[in-house]
Records
---
Amino acid sequence: MSTIDPTSPLRRTALNATHRAHKAKMVDFGGWDMPVEYSGLIAEHTAVRTAVGLFDVSHMGDIQLRGPGSLAAVQHLCMNDASKLAVGQAQYSAMLTPDGTFVDDVVVHKLSDNDYLIVINAGTRDKDIAWVRKQIGAMPNIHISDYSDYYTQLAIQGPKAAAALAKLTDTDLTAIKNYWFTYGKVCGLYNVMIARTGYTGEDGFEIYIPSDEPTSSRVWGEVLNAGAEFGILPCGLGARNTLRLESAMALYGHEISDTINVFEANLGRYAKLDKGSDFVGRAALAAIEAAGGPKRKLVGLEMIERGIGRDGYPVCTVAGERIGQITSGSPAPFLKKNIALAYVPVQVAALDEVVAVEIRGQLVKAKVVATPFYKRAKKST
Amino acid sequence: MAYPADHRYTREHEWISVVGSTGIVGITDYAQGSLGDIVFVDLPKVGDTLEAGKIFGSVESVKAVSDLFSPASGTVTAVNEELKDAPEQVNADANATWMLKLALKDAAELDALLSAAQYEAFIAEETGH
């Protein structure tokens, strides 16, 4: 996580006044003054699972690489195989340290053969940009731009997200497949990137609009109006966290960090060691594989006795010997269970294995379950 | 929000009302509002001894755990079992939802607590209104 200077004021997105006008509860997230909830976390979480929710995620960062050398640069920087991307396609990936641990997880978008957009986390923005410049700044034929402050990024998520957004654009949203994007006119704005991506486990879109306050608040209002008939709610970081946890999606500083490697985090399927070009961290990953794989693994836990296992709580054997730790844990508002992601030794990482979570001095039983905890029903829109 | 005048209040946002020599304890509307949706209430057992100012349990929202501090000393005589399965009752009406009852050791302890007016002033200061 980036270090926060306690003497500097919190950063704000263009919608800060809008959130405050909604009477949102605000919180410091990675140095940003962000809404954690508006009407209530459970209501917001439920809206995304059953209808549609709207998030301001403008605090996230945007790095654009342009030039004939940009694919080579992305391939060197990120572990997934960007050469497999078509124009208009995106992929989940990560930037690794030379040890095969995480600098950050990212989504790489191919805008054109010479143009890639990498969306990065808010809490790691400054660190990531410095890393990118250091790793690929000397590579030929590329120009690196930090466009983070140019965009207001809105996430519209839920089974009714497409129906709501369709009222605001002539772009055929049914033609955009999952993890693909296009450009279109949205709320009267030309060339808005419309991406079928998100961090909730539901169908949904992320749109990137100009970050001036009048445009941002106008579009925010129009999305809420368009979604009103479906029951849209503005949603904060509280629901964002419980939604991504139910979907077992990683959060930097919790499931992934610079002390956790790709295989431990269960993200090996996104690391293409055989993609034909070297990337930072590749050699370390190959060595870990050759040595028999990781010694600990990220697993899903479901509390089976009464209690809530939370971030940082120790995981123990039933007898009480500490063996691991919860990275993210919370009640799951939609599943109505108490769930967690945790690192445990590979020997106890099997499904149905029973462990104990230390909750304020008490051992409370949990069992290893499959992830994701929640999977949306596959259906056509 | 008018806080019941016949209750006394702690700075940790618990309330206590007295019926005979029994104290009835809950948390305030301000507390439930700050917590958000309450999903879990951890209370002591009947027969447990509580000490004024000491932690006797916890209340959890989705996002956080909050300790509960006892307004008075005594022995627990009843616990609201409904809160096990319906903790959200506390959000619905905190000022009227009891958590436990205790046989008070010393009713004079309540004199040290805040009156409704003092509590309202206290939270006004906390929220900067």
Note: Chain A has a mean pLDDT of 96.
---
Amino acid sequence: METYAILQCIWWGLLGVLLMGLAVMVGMDMGVGTILRYVGRSDVERRVALNIVGPHWEGNQVWFILGGGAVFAAFPLIYATAFSGFYVVMLLLLWSMILRPLGFEYRSKMPSPAWRNMWDWTLLVSGLLPMVIFGAAIGNLFRGVPFHFDWTLTSTYTGSFLGLFNPFAILCGLLAACLSILMGAVTVMNGAEGVMYERGRTLARLGAAIGAALFAVGGWWVQRMPGFVLDAAPGAGVPQTPMQQQVSLHAGAWLGNFHAHPMLWLVPVLGFVGMAASYLAANARRSHLAWWLGALAWAGVIGTVGAALFPFMLPSISEPAQSLTIWNSSSSRVTLGWMLGFTAVFVPLIVWYTSWAFYVMRGKVSAAHIAADDHAY
Amino acid sequence: MHDITVVDLSRLQFAATALYHFLFIPMTLGLTFMLAAMETVYVITGKEIYKRITQFWGKLLLINFALGVATGLTMEFQFGTNWSFYSSFVGDIFGAPLAIEGLMAFFLESTFIGLMIFGWDRLSRGQHLAVTFLVALGSNLSALWILIANSFMQDPVGAAFNPVTMRMELHDFAALIFSHDAQAKFVHTSIAGYVTGAVFVAGVSAWYMLKHRHMEVARRSFRMAVLFGVLSTAGVITLGDALGFVGGQAQPTKLAAMEGLWKTEAAPMPFNLVAFPSQKAQTNYGQLQVPYALSLLVTHTLTGTVPGIDVLEQRAATRIRDGIPAVAALKTLSSDPHNVDALAQFNAHKQDLGYGFLVKRYANDVTTATDTQIAKASRDAIPPVAPMFWSFRIMVVMGLAMLAFFVLALIYTMRNDIEKHRWFLWVAVWMIPVPFLACEAGWLVAEVGRQPWTVFGVLPTWMSASTHSVSYMIFSLVGFVALYTVFIVIEMYLMLRAIRQGPDDAHPDALMTAHPLTDLPFSYREA
């Protein structure tokens, strides 16, 4: 294979890893927001829950920014087409993401119960909604998205906002919400004690069980829905535009990669095993283990999506021949090369100092300490 | 085709959200560095008062930081949502610095700001100081990469159009990051942030001195802010001059608009101190001139001259005519990538491709463009003169006012009689909005002056926007205005409240449960 094709594949993989990082780290914080009103019945309990993610949510949120930046740099055509096509979705996602920091920062700055209650609801909505939308957007990739290009490669989206919420997309959205609740609940178990720990345990098991069921239904569904097949294209590692390919649709075609390479079945299996084992670990009160297994489940689920769609990234239902693939939407070889260099240096550094930050702030959060600290959330 | 109303609404939304975002960024840039300086004094002297000073300003920084992060997300999304053609056309170059900013800078500041606020009892003094410095480093590196990206829009170096992929592609990464515009603009902008931080700290401290509250914290903070401020204001003016020099060469249209220079004049050129430019009449009303000054300012000689708008419009017309065959050849190549004739025609005219796009706004099939349409497009090549002329002057006057303020403050501080000059302390309080306004004016000069391009000479603004409906654009604009209004109200309320409470406050809950107010532990977790 040519260097360019290898770089394209590496970046496709890195994007997957970033998506997993985003799902695990941001999903965990959003999960805590979603279940805040359930795990925390009193104000003090809610503050305990918030302060468990308190020192880290800001760093975790950067996964989201980094994810956006990486798509922009490595697959500009995907960034441009998806962000403008999913316009209302992106705005709702964005508005949720910018409300969350304010929820964290401002909620406990005023003693009024009405004020705090308002922010608790804000944290719930801005935790749950983005996860559902995130999942639904991924679900729509399987069905194809209605967009086409003119000769300058200006994209036009012809679908509606509500059209995105078809049954399969809703299923994917619920799956994402379940996994986020699982991770959020396990995080609460990691940081809290007593009754909050038990509430977290209940929700973790619930999230894992429903998530596994939805994942199974999704697999059955994909087997029957029309999938995209790349019949002719300039190929991997060849500079090109999306105007030079032939694409057809066949029922069950999204499983083509799995039939061709049976080893790939291990990826969805990883998702199931992750959820099942996370359930068992939460049940056995091994919350740290359950967290890692939940992260594994996310990796399995996102890996399954990637394995099924490859080499498609954003299929077009209205002009299938103009579907975006790894090969026609990536950046140039020079850009991918430079970006890989920066990633190779900085990602290990980030992992190192993030771990250190978690290590410094390790331990349980208690009500007494929140009451005594004027910087607590 | 693009609906021009949608393009204008996209521009309005970008300007509104960017100006709003830029209210918080300069203060983050400045305060993080000032905190690092304050904490350094604490670590060296071991005096508890400096720890309290650091923690107090750190709390105000955090209120500001949260909105800076939140509104920064909007900016990163907006290129994709509202400017999708721009994003795919130059994403190969523009996306890279944005992604590197996340990797190198944003992760750093966001991870360590948590430790900076929560880690006082968990880190040794040296470790905590290192953390504070890393937050400052992170926020400044963040500015560096964003401004490298911005500089590509101002002076697109290190890249070329590839007809095979129909977009601009990166050729020379070093040229991109070491562009003169990027260097001058990074230093100018980050130092403007230090000025903002210094004016803020000086103003709040002055208010405490006027009220005779928290005198120990206020006196020391004021002194540090003045030292910081006098150095950075001098720096920001010097670098502003350098930026004007670099920018004048790369973007003569920006310079001409800034100076209201309708006609090219012989050296030494006079400087328009005051004027009321009219775009329609292509002339200035009521102008007050300083002889020789423009030549000195923009060329640093008495014999230098720069082209006026009349000449620049002529040049644009010539380049538009040359760009038309490039656009036509590109259209052929898009459906027939191996057409040898089209490729030859494209290569012969590619340096004016962007100018060809400029006339496509009036003639969708550029080969049919009439002389009137070309004249219209070449008039477009000049940015709006009056807003440029005035934002530039407002920025400069404010910069000079802050320099005078800090020099006087330095004199009073050195004489150690600042508290006797109550009028001056009030001036310090009323100075607080000035750097914010100056920063906003600076943004306007840089970005309005780039019009009609998103990437100067390469991609016109009108082509860059997404193809949305007007109703979508109104929906998002209304959403942002509503959210951002709520945010600024809450932010101002919390900031003013934190300032009124001063350095000795406790958490509202601690007040309610009657905790002792002195020296609360900063950790909330069990060891």
Note: Residues 505-527 of chain B have pLDDT under 50 and may be disordered.
